[in-house]
Amino acid sequence: MSETTAPVTRTAASPVIAESSTARGRRARIALRTLQVVLALFYVIASALPKLIAHPSAAEGFDKMGWGSAGMYIIGVLELAGGIALLIPVLQSVAAVALSGLMVGAFVVQLTYFDGENAATPLILIVPLTLIAWARRRHNADLLRLVRRRA
């Protein structure tokens, strides 16, 4: 008994690599998830925590800008929320976009207040955040359905 199969053609509606069921797609999903976990840990531990515990290195920068402790705590809470949201499937894409916006602000602040001393750091972080936002963009429809159902 012979079995024939029809050739598979890729169309515009085909899933992206990060969502396909192939071995390559599985590796892409694992790599993307690993990147999300690493970025989440960075934002929660290395970025938000020093601001939320008012570490002198963080407080000094915000004092120099004239934002004081209130600005430091607000930015810390935003980074903490974004880092946690990177790990929640329905919020991943939105969190990546929001953190990218925060990094654009950090870039501008680095240029204006600190003479561009660490201006490359926010730009470097925007690259993986953009990748996450794009790869997880289908979750936006799920989030929109959730919001509409609650409204």
Summarize the structure in words.
The protein is mostly helical and 151 residues long. It is built from 6 helices and no strands. The radius of gyration is 20 Å and the shape is globular. The model is unreliable at 8-12 (pLDDT under 50).
Highlighted features:
single chain, 151 residues, mainly alpha, 72% helix, 0% strand
Compact summary:
The protein has 151 residues and is mainly alpha-helical. 72% of the residues lie in helices and 0% in strands.
SSE order and pairing:
Elements: H1 23-52, H2 56-65, H3 68-85, H4 92-113, H5 120-135, H6 139-150
Mean pLDDT reading: 89
Query: What are the secondary-structure elements, in order, as H or E?
Result: HHHHHH
The helicity comes to: over 70%
Secondary structure category:
mainly alpha
Largest sheet: none
Question: Measured on Cα atoms, how large is the radius of gyration?
Answer: 20 Å
Q: Provide the low-confidence segments as ranges.
A: 8-12
**Approximate shape:** globular
- End-to-end distance: 57 Å
User: Total number of β-strand segments?
Assistant: 0
Number of helices: 6
How much β-strand is present in the residues?
under 5%
